User: Fold this.
Amino acid sequence: MSSGADKTERATPKRREDARRRGQVAKSQDLNGALVLLAGLLALSLLGPHVVGIMESTLRDGLASISRPQELMSAAGLGELFSATARAVLLGLAPIAAVCVVAGVVANVGQSGIKPATQALTPDPRRLNPINGARNIFGTRMFFEGAKSLAKVGVVGAIVALALIPRLTELSATVGASPAALSAQLISMVFALAQRAALAYLVIAAIDYGYQRWRHEKSLRMSMEELREELKSHSLPAEVKGAQRRRQLQQARARMMAAVPHADVVVVNPTHFAVALKYDGSKPAPECVAKGQDLIALQIRRLAEQAGVPVIEDRPLARSLHASIEVGQLVPEELFQAVAQVLAYVYRVARRRSA
Assistant:
């Protein structure tokens, strides 16, 4: 296995495509958040008067309905009030939410592309390994993420403080101002602070995206040996590749047939399917050492009979085993009871013969 110091070559297109299929792409979550925040602020600045108008109209209608308590306290009156309020909130906030959703989708597609990584959705038992999980949590990435979070909070907080402190005198001058003037000035100030914070966050996100791309490129680098092996596999003619696959298949079948005499039982159906099982107590369940259909099943059965391995005819179990496990895999949990009954019968017969 090549060490990290040996991987000095740039990744080939095939390696990049394989990594993309596994879901390994250069992606920054901070960039998504910054773009969504900027899109939300833009939508608020454009649609803010529309939202305020809808809320003002709804509030006015609600206060007007309070003046008619007899109508309001009825079931129809309360239902109409709640439905009108919910409709106003939905009409006011739906456009802004839609803009944020579109910005999030565009940010994700812009970083990782449109092609979905289906292989990343496949369950992987290695992800449940607590050692790997602890390494990911307490590794060097944790220190970088912690430093990045502190930098984000510090930079954004400093920019907001520098923008807010000089305007404190303006706030003191609003004492005695009308509610409309006070709200307009506060909204303007909050928007200015939010825009500066969002721009600072965007700069941090751009730096993080550059780091993620560098880290991704570094993880894809290849050693000279890996590069030679990949080029060799791609330069072979199709006939040679087919011959190699056939030879590998023949070797695997020969190893499988060699394991049949060492099996504990062969479950057949009776000629269409055959599955050879072995259980030595070192594993939590019996292991499939050979399986086959039609001609291969007949060959497995013939080798088992020659070696004295018990051959048990159980059509449903043979079909289930052949469909659910591969050679080298353990019997699934839903077939434990049926396989245990077969093995118990084989062991009883063997004890009787030995007695």
About this structure: The two ends are 53 Å apart (CA to CA). Residues 4-225 form one domain. DSSP finds 13 helices and four strands in the chain. Strands lie at 265-268, 273-278, 287-293, 311-313.
